[in-house]
Structure formats: structure tokens, C-alpha cells
Write a structure and sequence with these properties.
13 strands; single chain; alpha/beta; 291 residues; binds 1-O-phosphono-alpha-D-glucopyranose; nine-stranded mixed beta sheet; two-stranded antiparallel ribbon; globular; 23% strand; Spore Coat Polysaccharide Biosynthesis Protein SpsA, Chain A
């Protein structure tokens, strides 16, 4: 069973400046909660019980958000603001814990994942990149499907979606003989980090959800610097694929890249209109704009 998930949150978020100058980009609010909460909830919905933050000294507010705040709780209790008290004490279910480890140097995503090696131990684990929000179209949770498939096939799972051909150089891109149907996995022939436009093996991009065996940590230790002079998770997965079956899982949900400003605005719109309490009035506000 996959119970641990690594969330690399040490990145400085230069794509989100100036907001990210003094607020971690993961703490920027999407409707009424920080972006990172959606990713943590996605992991929990897929059965994850331990969230491992790979973080940086400037990001303490993320850890604080998932911790208890005794002073605030006492004040809300005294003021009988019990709804709010429930909201802030029920962010995480009781069976879920959040631990953190520092990434001492910005050496890339592969290095960030490797920083969690001792916490992960010998168990397979998930990785969720918190820039990307995944909104499920139904009750189906794509990460949960990947975990089921991992347990069935024992093959690492890499979540993918199709992107326009001129955007392949922004993503990891997978090589598959047979393109997977939505909600299905197919064996991968290869994976390459940010290929130049016109050289990509497909248009299936890695969106930042992975289910990986513990063995990947040993491969990360041997992974030389790659694209951007960083230690790339993609390169370690390519190494894994030389000896083990690795599968690409094609997602059903919709992605929002909250690391970019327009992606973030799109997320606010989509999560806003479907918000259980605010959605109906938010739709009216949008109509008032008469665009
Ligand atoms: C990372 C991964 C890349 C993946 C992308 C998804 O890149 O290295 O393979 O496609 O996330 O967002 P980054 O966006 O951190 O440069």
C-alpha cells in the first residue's frame, strides 16, 4: 500500500513574483484556501497518510498551516466562533501526518525527492508537484487510479496529459508505443525532460504526479545533472525504465498550473464557480462583468 507522498515545496516561485517575494507560492489563495491544501487533499483522497514536505527556510508558513495554532484556537473558542474553529482544526484528518525535511541547495526536482530518502525508507511512494492542481471530473481520483495500477502491475506510474506540440519544451515528455486511453496505463519506451519543439517522442506531458518504487532513490543518487544543470527526476525515471517496467497513466481530470499567473487565474475561476458555498454568487459576479 502506498501511504507516503513527497511534495517538493522548496522552489522560490520566480514565475509568481512579485506575490511570491514574501509568501510561498504554495500559500497563495485559490478561492478560500491555499493552493497547497488542494494538493494535500488530493493525496489524502488517494489514501496517502503521510505528507513529506521537502522545503526551504523561507517556507515555514506551509508547515504552520498544517500545524495546530493553540492561540488562535483558544481565541475562536472563547468567542464561540465554532464554525471557524472546526474549519481550522479539520484541515487534516486525524490519521494524516505532515513531516518536513529541508532541501539545503536548489539542485533540482530529483535532488528534492532524494532529500526525503530516509523518511520514505523501503516503501514505494507518490510524488505530487504542488504547482499543478488536478481537478477531478467525477468522484474518480487519478492518483488513486495510479496507486491501484501500481499495486496491480508493480510498475512505476507517471501521470500524463496531451499538450499542444509547441509546448513540449516546458515538460517531461513520455515515449509510448501505444497511447493510453484516459484512465488507463501503457508501458513507456522512454521519457525525456523538456525536449526541443520538433524533437519530442510524443505530445504526452508529465504533469507532476508519480508513483515510484523505493529503488528510484538509489538511481537518483547516481543521476548526473541534466536539463537546466539540475538533477532531474525524469532522468532517474529514464534509468529505472532500462531495467523495470514503467507505465504512463493518462489522466481524466483537468490540470491548472498555479505556478503561472494565467493558470492561477483559471484555477480561481474553475474552483470558484464550483465552490459549494460561494459558487452561485461567484457566477453572478462573473455575469456582471458582461465581457
Ligand atoms: C517539472 C518536471 C517536468 C514536469 C513538470 C510538470 O518541471 O521536471 O518533467 O513536466 O514539472 O509541471 P518544472 O516545471 O519544475 O520545470
Amino acid at each position: 500500500m502506498i501511504k507516503k507522498a513527497i511534495l517538493p515545496v522548496a522552489g522560490l516561485g520566480t514565475r509568481f513574483l512579485p506575490a511570491s517575494k514574501s509568501i510561498p507560492k504554495e500559500m497563495v489563495t485559490v478561492v478560500d484556501r491555499p493552493a497547497i491544501e488542494y494538493v494535500v487533499k488530493e493525496a489524502i483522497a488517494a489514501g496517502i497518510e503521510q505528507i513529506i514536505l521537502v522545503t526551504h527556510s523561507s517556507k515555514a508558513s506551509i508547515e504552520n498551516y498544517f500545524d495546530r495554532n493553540f492561540e488562535l484556537e483558544t481565541t475562536l473558542e472563547q468567542k464561540k466562533k465554532l464554525d471557524l474553529l472546526a474549519e481550522i482544526t479539520q484541515i487534516l484528518p486525524e490519521h494524516v501526518s505532515v513531516v518536513s525535511v529541508r532541501q539545503p541547495q536548489p539542485l533540482g526536482l530529483g535532488h528534492a525527492v532524494l532529500c526525503a530518502k530516509d523518511i520514505v525508507g523501503n516503501e514505494p511512494f507518490a510524488v505530487l508537484l504542488p504547482d499543478v492542481l488536478v481537478k477531478n471530473q467525477s468522484e474518480e481520483n487519478d492518483l488513486a487510479q495510479m496507486i491501484v495500477q501500481f499495486e496491480r502491475s508493480n510498475a512505476a506510474q507517471i501521470m500524463v496529459e496531451a499538450v499542444p506540440d509547441d509546448l513540449v519544451d516546458q515538460y517531461g515528455i513520455v515515449d509510448v508505443a501505444v497511447s493510453p486511453e484516459q484512465g488507463q496505463s501503457q508501458v513507456m519506451q522512454g521519457i525525456v525532460e523538456k525536449p526541443a519543439v520538433g524533437t519530442a517522442p510524443s505530445n504526452l506531458s508529465v504533469i507532476g504526479r508519480y508513483v515510484l518504487p523505493a529503488k528510484i532513490m538509489h538511481l537518483l543518487e547516481k543521476t548526473p545533472r541534466g536539463a537546466g544543470n539540475e538533477i532531474q527526476l525524469t532522468d532517474a525515471i529514464a534509468m529505472l525504465q532500462q531495467t523495470d517496467v514503467v507505465e504512463a497513466y493518462r489522466m481524466c481530470g483537468q490540470t491548472f498550473d498555479c505556478g503561472s499567473k494565467l493558470g492561477y487565474l483559471k484555477a480561481v475561476l474553475h474552483y470558484g464557480v464550483t465552490h459549494p458555498k460561494l459558487g452561485a454568487e461567484f457566477i453572478e459576479l462573473i455575469k456582471e462583468l458582461k465581457l
